[in-house]
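REQUEST ID: PR-0412
SUBMITTED BY: lab tech R.K.
PRIORITY: routine
TASK: structure prediction, single protein chain
INPUT:
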Amino acid sequence: MAESLMDIKRKIASTKKTGQITQAMQMVSGSKLTRIEKRSNAYQIYANKVREIVTHLAAAQLLEIERQQSEALAGTDVPKARLELANLLAERPVKKTGYLVITSDRGLVGGYNSTVLKAMMQIFADDHKAKDDYVIMAIGGTGADFFKSRGMNLAYEYRGVSDIPTFNEVREILSTAVTMFDNGVFDELYVCYNHHVNSLTSAFRAEKMLPITDLDVAEVADTSIEYLTEPDPDAVLEAILPQYGESLIYGAIMDAKTAEHAASTTAMKSATDNANDLISRLSVTYNRARQSQITTEITEIVGGANALA
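STATUS: complete
OUTPUT:
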């Protein structure tokens, strides 16, 4: 019985230490979550402004092309369109699809990684007949190792994204994705990640980022207003479109990191709660065993005293 009590005491002490560690990790993850949520909200101001400018410039191109096409159909002799859709806006036949998959570099994040990887395998099975039909860009060591171990077409990997990533830090990822699209490595790019809904919930997303097809001309309040640009609007659009494409991908990385910190906070809270529950159960077991031991000792003492009497 003494050994059993000692074992229970060791388990209680060990579980308390584990609970202290997970509680500290929960607090750290919670702090990171608060910081990145503030950063994400501030970044949306920039992203929305870039989208407004790009939409306006692209709308001017689209309206000009539509006008010239209408005049051509009407039999009017018009000069060749001066404006052409930039490469990042132009859709082309899809021979190969690119997937930028965002996972974490470490564990202790609950089902964060498994949700993304399971969804990706389902996409590959449903939408592609062969592995050569798609290219994978992996952000995060968990995803990179997962795809490598299965011999999948991993064209690029990046590890060690910081907890609060800056634009300059991940510029290599962004520029590489845009360059690979420009060079025809893939004809469309989907960014796949866990979207942060709230502190307890995330949802898998696979968003088409390239080519940029989500610009809505109707969002432009007044197409008659023109920006004063130097050089011409075409050159400005060619320069700003890659930045807009990069901002979309960066926004997804920020969103994924936010979901990661939320998942880590939730996982560590669950671990801490489980440790506290286990300590409670072990304490009850210890008290019962100790009570039983004391009762046995008292019974033996009384029995001995009666025997002497």
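NOTES: Helices lie at 2-73, 112-127, 141-149, 171-182, 233-308.
REVIEWED BY: pending
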